[in-house]
């Protein structure tokens, strides 16, 4: 019984609802960009980038569809997972007293990760289009450091806040 986690419904916060809107806007935006530019995209586009941000592999333009599809799949998977916070693994012991807040924090972190992944994928698709049409040569040199901060920043913030709320 020590691993018991209460099954409770957690209301969304304003921040979480905003993050969900940002995610959905990112999905729509990516579809719009691809549809709007599809005819002008060359048949070969970058499909992989080295650490320096320069393309080091190429594929057909249909490969650009992979990132929005994977982004949408991640969005769906994390949205479904968010409905069952009592099934998560938590670092801190979940009790009836802290469950609501811990579940709320974990759900907000999932929403942040969804938004981040979708917009990172959008940036990669946009840059691949720019490179393939001759309007750019590589991803920004700041891409990797920013990516690390964007992904791990909210995770660290979640760990800090959830520790204080344990």
Could you give the topology of this structure?
Elements: H1 14-37, E1 44-49, E2 55-60, H2 66-82, H3 99-132, H4 143-164
Antiparallel strand pairs: 1-2
Question: How would you characterize the overall build of this protein?
Answer:
- Helices cover 58% and strands 7% of the residues.
- It has 166 residues and is mainly alpha-helical.
- It has one domain (14-164).
- It has a two-stranded antiparallel ribbon with strand order 1-2.
- Helix 3 runs antiparallel to helix 4.
The profile of the biggest β sheet is: 2 strands, antiparallel
Task: Estimate nothing, just give the exact number of structural domains.
Answer: 1
Helical content, roughly?
Answer: 55-70%
Taking all residues together, what is the mean pLDDT? 94
Question: What is the β-strand count?
Answer: 2
Strands in their spatial order, largest beta sheet: 1-2
- The number of helical runs is 4
Gist of the model:
This protein has 166 residues and is mainly alpha-helical.
What are the main properties of this structure?
mainly alpha; single chain; 166 residues; 2 strands; two-stranded antiparallel ribbon
């Amino acid at each position: 019984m020590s691993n018991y986690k209460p099954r409770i419904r957690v209301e969304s916060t304003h921040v979480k609802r905003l993050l969900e809107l940002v995610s959905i806007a990112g999905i729509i935006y990516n579809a719009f960009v691809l549809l709007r530019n599809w005819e002008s995209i060359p048949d070969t586009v970058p499909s992989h980038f080295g650490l320096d941000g320069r393309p080091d592999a190429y594929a057909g333009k249909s490969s650009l569809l992979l990132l929005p599809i994977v982004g949408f799949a991640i969005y769906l998977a994390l949205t479904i997972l968010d409905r069952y916070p009592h099934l998560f693994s938590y670092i801190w012991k979940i009790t009836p007293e802290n469950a609501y807040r811990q579940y709320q924090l974990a759900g907000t972190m999932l929403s942040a990760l969804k938004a981040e992944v979708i917009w990172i994928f959008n940036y990669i698709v946009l840059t691949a289009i720019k490179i393939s049409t001759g309007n750019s040569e590589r991803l920004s040199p700041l891409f990797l450091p920013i990516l690390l901060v964007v992904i791990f920043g909210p995770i660290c913030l979640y760990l800090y806040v959830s520790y204080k709320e344990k």
